[in-house]
UniProtKB/TrEMBL annotation:
It is found in: Cytoplasm, Cytosol. Keywords: Cytoplasm, Exocytosis, Transport. One of its GO terms (biological process) is intracellular protein transport. Residues 1-11 have a biased composition (Basic residues). Belongs to the SEC15 family. This is Exocyst complex component. Residues 60-229 form the Exocyst complex component EXOC6/Sec15 N-terminal domain.
Length: 804
């Protein structure tokens, strides 16, 4: 090896005789420096090829390689000694390893000889442990199978008992705890097949029961609605009875202010439907007779099956279809006969839905129930609008309105808004009252046509109570003796009953309709009934059917009684409307039957005037040129007074004093005008003072007749009665006056002759002036001097003619 290295070192050394110039050395140094520094030698290669001297570059590279070989050789020589030392260490280590190996072999032999019995024991133990594990696994599998079979048996028992919830719990336990742990593949496949079948069977069974419940709940809802509305009606009747008792107590207190009147306040019965608004209450189902168990069972089962949302949708759709079916109105049955069933069905439906919403735990939401109610309200409003538009009988509208208002009261207690429904009723208020007015017009016409206009005879106290006390027509608080002859005819109580029925029907329609203060509406239609219907009917009967004085007198008496009845009508309307009577008394208006009253009095006075005219014809028998005045009155005035006294004796029993006074005043005024008209007429060409004095006696007899009626009237009324003869009295006073020219004095004329007409005074005075001269002279003498009275009369006549 040393000889070889030596030879290589000789090759690597450059010969001094190579004759390399300094340029080549410089290039060789640069190339060696670049290679040592790991630089790119590409520029050297390109330059060598560019100069066409690649061989020189190759020579330089070989020279660089030879210089490195010598360095490598020196490094190897430096590490050779270390290698020799390491080999020596390895050889000493190998001998130590051999001794260790022999020691390990001896130890292994010792351990093997000791551990063989132990290993045999361990193998036996492991085998026994595996057997034990297998036995335990088998026992656990047996226990699991036993529990599985018990659950299966229990599930079958629950299925046979229709206890589907517990059966599903068993199935869920089987599926969750045992299905993946069943050791038998056959049993596992059987369970995987039967579990869905069991669930499907339970779902079908529960759905069938729910379907049967849907069918049954419709009939139950109808009965429930009828019961609930009936209870609302009973509660309303109790309230009405209590208000009637309260009104009676108030009336007694008003009539007897010093006495304290106490009224017992009745306690209302507990509402049977009271539990209906409490969620979760169990009393309602028993009382109202409807069972929600099938529904709750079906909902719970579907929740357990994980089908809750699907069942909610199924329930809502079916109930919506049922509600739509309930909206159908049969065209074969009149709505008046079917409206109770129609509205009771809807009421029962929403009572049931309210209970389900509050107690089912989310089966149907409040929003869904509100949507169903809005649909129901719109449909009911449409049906009511349609049916009301066809009805032409007020009583039919009232019956349906009352039932709808009871429906509103019933469902409002369950939180349903019913204002829209009540607005439909209010909208038909005018039509109802128009129909009611038409019915009353017909009934009043029949009552007036059937009356004979004779005083009504009452033989029993109940007749008096029914015809007089019930309308507050009595003039005294004492019960009269029976038989009792009333001052009115049968028209009065008959018409009062019709008006009272109108008031009660009007209040009934306006009550419970959402409007609390409706007295003004009732009063408006009551005014129309009295002022248009009753007043018009009375006017018609007065103008067409009254022909005698007795009938006219009875009609006038009836009008006076109607005035008291009208006060009762408005107070009765106020009481029924909940308005204090004192408010009605403060706002009392004029008598609504004024036209009929005036026509009746005018008819009576007209017939009396006609009758007196038949006696006044006898004035033609008066001797206008009598030689001496009559002392007992002329024949005509005696006949008139006899007739008037006879008539007054009858009339005062039934006619009120003001009416009697007005009629007598009209008749006496007519007699006065008739006498003056006779003096003014062409039938009387002339008359003398004796005739005028005879007329003076006639007027004194009429004044005496008026004075005799003083017991019937007050002093003012008696003086008004006598003032009816003012014209004829003033005319006679003027003709008998010694100074008739005083008529020209405005003061005297206003005080003593204010009822006289200038033209009549002229014409009548001229007839007196045409009498012979002796009539104006003193008895037994004839003076050539003109009579002062005649002269005064001539002056009067001349002055009046000039003024005219």
């Amino acid at each position: 090896m040393n000889s070889a290295s030596k030879i290589r070192r000789k090759v690597a050394q450059p010969s001094a005789s190579d004759g390399v110039d300094s340029a080549d050395k410089q290039e060789q140094l640069l190339l060696s420096s670049a290679i040592c520094n790991n630089e790119d030698v590409g520029p050297f290669i390109r330059r060598a090829f560019a100069s066409g001297k690649p061989d020189r570059l190759l020579l330089h590279l070989r020279h660089f390689a030879r210089s490195k070989e010598s360095e490598i050789e020196e490094v190897c020589k430096a590490h050779y000694q270390d290698f020799i030392l390491a080999v020596d260490d390895l050889r000493s280590l190998l001998s130590d390893v051999d001794s260790l190996k022999s020691s390990l072999n001896r130890s292994n032999s010792t351990v093997q000889s000791v551990a063989v019995p132990l290993l045999d024991s361990l193998d036996g133990f492991l085998e026994a442990r595996n057997i034990s594990v297998n036995i335990n696994l088998a026992l656990r599998s047996v226990h699991s199978c036993i529990k599985l079979l018990e659950l299966c048996s229990r599930a079958n028992l629950h299925l046979s008992d229709n206890n589907f919830y517990m059966a599903l719990k068993c199935v869920d336990a089987i599926e969750g705890e045992f299905l993946d742990k069943v050791p038998s593949l056959t049993m596992k496949r059987m369970l995987e097949t039967k579990i869905p079948e069991v669930r499907s069977f339970i779902e079908r069974k529960v759905s069938k029961e729910f379907g049967d419940w849907l069918v049954d709940i419709r009939m139950v809802s109808r009965n429930l609605g009828q019961l609930a509305i009936g209870q609302a009606s009973a509660a309303r009747q109790r309230d009405e009875d209590l208000r009637i008792k309260q009104r009676q107590a108030e009336e007694q207190s008003r009539l007897s202010l010093r006495d304290c009147v106490y009224a017992l306040q009745e306690e209302e019965d507990n509402d049977v439907l009271g539990g209906g608004i409490e969620a979760g209450g169990s009393s309602e189902s028993g009382v109202l007779g409807f069972d929600l168990t099938p529904l709750y069972k079906a909902y719970h089962i579907h929740q357990t099956l994980g089908l809750e949302d699907r069942f909610k949708q199924y329930y809502f759709e079916n109930r919506k279809l049922q509600l739509t079916s309930d909206f159908q109105v049969s065209s074969m049955t009149p709505f008046l006969e079917s409206h109770q069933t129609f509205f009771a069905q809807i009421a029962g439906f929403f009572i049931v839905e309210d209970r389900i919403m509050r107690s089912s735990g989310g089966l149907i939401s409040k929003l869904d129930v509100e949507n169903l109610w809005e649909t129901a309200v719109s449909k009911m409003c449409y049906v009511l609008e349609d049916q009301f538009s066809r009805m032409q009988t007020a009583n039919h509208l009232l019956l349906i309105k009352d039932y709808v208002s009871l429906l509103g009261v019933t469902l409002r207690r369950y939180g349903y808004p019913v204002d829209t429904l009540l607005d439909v009723l209010s909208k038909h208020r005018d039509k109802y009252h128009e129909l009611l007015l038409s019915d009353c017009r017909k009934h009043i016409g029949e009552a007036l046509a059937a009356d004979k206009y004779e005083q009504m005879l009452m033989r029993k106290e109940y007749e008096y109570s029914m015809n007089v006390l019930s309308f507050q027509l009595q003039t005294s608080d004492f019960i009269p003796a029976f038989p009792y002859v009333a001052p009115f005819s049968s028209t009065v109580p008959d018409c009062c009953r019709i008006v009272r029925s109108f008031i009660e029907d009007s209040v009934s329609f306006m009550s419970y309709g959402g409007q609390l203060d409706f007295f003004d509406v009732v009063k408006k239609y009551l005014d129309r009934l009295l002022s248009e219907v009753l007043d018009g009917s009375l006017l018609k009967i007065i103008n067409t059917s009254i022909h005698g004085v007795s009938q006219a007198m009875q009609v006038a008496a009836n009008m006076a009684v109607f005035k008291r009845a009208c006060d009762f009508f408005f107070c009765h309307a106020a009481q029924l409307s909940g308005i204090p009577p004192r408010m009605v008394e403060r706002s009392r208006r004029q008598f609504p039957l004024n036209k009929a009253k005036d026509a009746a009095e005018e008819m009576l006075s007209g017939l009396l005037k006609t009758k007196t005219d038949s006696f006044m014809i006898l004035i033609e028998n008066v001797n206008w040129m009598a030689d001496e005045p009559t002392q007992s009155g002329n024949e005509y005035v005696n006949e008139v007074i006899i007739y008037l006294e006879t008539w007054v004796s009858t009339a005062q029993q039934i006619l009120p004093a003001p009416v009697l006074r007005r009629v007598l005043q009209e008749v006496l005024c007519h007699i006065s005008e008739k006498i003056v008209a006779t003096l003014y007429s062409d039938a009387v060409k002339r008359f003398n003072v004796n005739a005028i004095m005879g007329l003076d006696v006639d007027i004194r007899l009429l004044d005496s007749f008026a004075d005799n009626q003083g017991s019937l009237f007050s002093d003012d009324e008696a003086s008004q009665l006598k003032s009816s003869l003012a014209e004829v009295r003033q005319m006679i006073n003027l003709l008998l006056s010694n100074h008739p020219e005083n008529f020209l004095n405005p003061v005297i004329r206003e005080r003593s002759y204010n009822a006289l007409d200038h033209r009549k005074v002229v014409m009548i005075s001229e007839k007196l002036r045409d009498t012979p001269e002796r009539l104006f002279s003193t008895f037994g003498t004839r003076g050539l001097k003109q009579n002062p009275k005649k002269k005064s009369l001539d002056v009067l006549i001349k002055r009046l003619k000039d003024a005219n």
